[in-house]
TrEMBL record:
Species of the source: Winogradskyella echinorum
Enzyme class, broadest EC rank: oxidoreductase
UniProt entry keywords in alphabetical sequence: Fatty acid biosynthesis, Fatty acid metabolism, Lipid biosynthesis, Lipid metabolism, NAD, Oxidoreductase
Binding-site list for substrate: Y224
Limits of the Trans-2-enoyl-CoA reductase catalytic domain: 81-316
Designated gene of the protein: fabV
The protein's name: Enoyl-[acyl-carrier-protein] reductase [NADH]
Amino acid sequence: MIIEPKTRGFICLTAHPTGCEQNVLSQIEYIKSKPTTEQPKKVLVIGASTGFGLASRITSAYGSNASTIGVYFEKPPSEGRPASPGWYNTAAFEKQAHKDGLYAKSINGDAFSNEIKEQTLKLIKEDLGEIDLLIYSLASPVRTHPNTGERFKSVLKPIGGTFKDNTVDFHTGEVKEISIEPSSGDDIKNTVTVMGGEDWQMWIDLLKSANVLTKDFKTVAYSYIGPSLTEAVYRKGTIGRAKDHLEATAFKITDTLKDIDGKAYVSVNKALVTQASSAIPVIPLYISLLYKVMKEEGIHEGCIEQIERLFSERLYANEVPLDTEGRIRIDDWEMRDDVQAKVLELWKEATTETLPSIGDLDGYKTDFFNLFGFNVEGVDYDKDVNEMVDIPGLQG
Ligand code: NAI
């Protein structure tokens, strides 16, 4: 079939297999251009199909020949209906990994559930015996609690007062003010239940009790801080509370891993266009300006560059450098004073008329469509493509 982008708000309902494959192959090429490393060797990535999780899987496999198991929640294709992009990404990754003699298997289902955790444990026991790295890179708007069956929804709201500032509709380029009402009722608790650290801890507890974690095992979850411009909706909003909880959980997990000299880290990553971040108000305008500044400075990175640097210069450095709160910082270039000062200046000038020249709206849009395999260089979108793609290492 011929597959075209069909967007609705900040999501795209279709995905292109060839474009997704091309994106994955480019990320693999990037990692292959870097020196190989000794570690990690046996890796479980939760949230492995897109964004930072996919980049973590590719970095592990192609940076140190690691065996990888990926867990994700993606929609398979049906006749005439393309799959979600993470499905095509995973298919492309596993196809290439198998060609290159790398172990790569995956599980598609709800990572919050006991069933998927048990299924993953079984696969680790049968195939790998143990793992030395677990990357926790879930981004989900909902979580059904495995013990109670209760379904929680996360919200992106400020706490304590109404938020008013500009944002951009990146499809039309219109810069306009938005107003978001503050959280109420159980909004904070619900968001922490979905995006906080409880599920991460549950994964580790299960795998630890089954003795499948190596000595010196590491686990990393991803967080974000960002500038004062976005803090009312992000770091000081409901999602920020969830990230506080995630960060506090890292210390708890490290305690439970003491006897195997294991460590849990939170890595604070850079703001990037992913399916998760395009849903957050204000972030698209911030990212458009940030991209412009970082590209001009020659310090722009995508997910794969971020994770490559995280692995080689932080996680597997002789000593893992941490900030005063005990977090890994790979958002260091984004948060540079000169970068933030420039973004703040541009923010004040940003209007529908000025944004195309002072911001990188085109870069934002390209990245957005790329997430779904569209606007990828070298792909002929007029060519018929088979939507029914299999994932070679898919279990179950
Ligand atoms: P993403 O939307 O690209 O990836 C989310 C992953 O989670 C996908 O693999 C998806 O299949 C999986 N997933 C979602 N719900 C699931 C479920 N119930 N069961 C199994 N898998 C499920 O998101 P992104 O942006 O890569 O986010 C990953 C982490 O990085 C999040 O914790 C996010 O807060 C953090 N982060 C993101 C930043 C950004 O700018 N995008 C910046 C810094 C941190």
